[in-house]
Amino acid sequence: MGLFGNKTIYFVDSENVNEKWIEALTDIKKSDEIIVFYTEKSTHASYENISKIADGDVNLNWVKCFTGTNALDFQLSTELGYRIAKGERNTFVIISNDKGYDAIVNYWVVKGIKVSRLGVEMDPPKKNRRTRTTKTTGLRSGRTSSVTRISSTKAAGSKAKAVKKVDINKVAKAQKDSKTTTKAATKTTSKAATKTTKDTAKKKDNKDANNQLPKSLWKRKPSTEMGYVEGIGKSVSVKELSNYHMVLTNLLGQETGTKYYHQIKDDKALRDKIAKTYIANEEQRLDYLVRIFLSYNNKGFTDLQKILNVIKDRKCDSLNNFYKLLTENFREEKGRTYYNIFKGIYSVLKSI
Question: Where are the beta strands (DSSP E) in 39-81?
């Protein structure tokens, strides 16, 4: 983890990730440092979990933060800036699912500082279960059945008494008139139904035409890492280097993504080449970026349209709701898989 400096310093937002940050630190070295920022709202970490880190002789520090709105976030960010201002050329990692830190990460990355945010997979929220109440009647089934039989018998008797002799000619005429009326009514109903069907089909065609997506510009899966790097430029402007860095590191990983980021940043000819491939249409840009991530993660495009619909859904206004909509559309396991693929670039997807 200490690729760009002597060590990696982890800044833990314990209010946001509880004690899940311990599970995220799987490659800690003795030279690394962990700073856990906590308040009264932070979940208490168990001794058993803490011992997994502490027993490794890692430099573990606890910082109790002052209370207030976003107080912990500000204090963590201040400590990060202080460490950087001291001239430390280390790798800095913020452990939090709060995407608000991404602006800070991007600010330092474009200045050449190795800063990143590491998200942690949280336990899915528990669903509220509604209790169904079944109303019962005071009558037993046997008694109800008995009452029904009595009523049917009385009705049959009354009907039998009401039978009278009728004129056959009158009955025949009435039947003829009834058939004529029924035929006319059927014809009218048929015409009305045909018109309604045509109107409905016309409205549907208009709606489909309005919702029809532009043709995808995707041709084939890139065969190299550089192919993916340049492919990102079709959806994310190379002029927005902070977003480009975010997408690169989420797709290729922190180390590889940052390597390509600096290559693009330092090579004007490469930037100009990528800039020429930028897609003008927003729908096509979003389509291409989603395909890039699905392709790199060896996922097919069967669920592509559903994923695009989730991203564009009005309810998809936060990372939590993004997770909720994905699991509702694809069930728990598959929804979580897609969430893990796209959560790091959620802000970029929504900005397209």
Answer: 59-64
pLDDT in the model for residue 199: 60
Residue 173 burial (10 A CB sphere; 0-12, 13-18, 19+):
exposed
Residues found in the chain: 352
* Amino acid, single-letter form, for residue 226: M
pLDDT single digits (tens) 326-340:
999 998 899 999 999
Cα–Cα distance, 43 to 23 (Å, whole number): 15
Residue in the structure block whose two tokens are 């990460």 = 105
pLDDT by residue (tens digit) across 278-319?
999 999 999 999 999 999 999 999 999 999 999 999 999 988
3-state helix, strand, coil in the chain (%, to 5): 60, 10, 35
- Convert the pLDDT of each residue in 151-160 to its tens digit: 444 444 444 4
- What secondary structure letter does DSSP report for 126? P
Calpha distance 115→105 (Å, rounded): 6
194 vs 119: CA distance, rounded Å: 57
Query: Any idea what the Cα angle at residue 15 is, between residues 22 and 249, rounded to 5°?
Result: 60
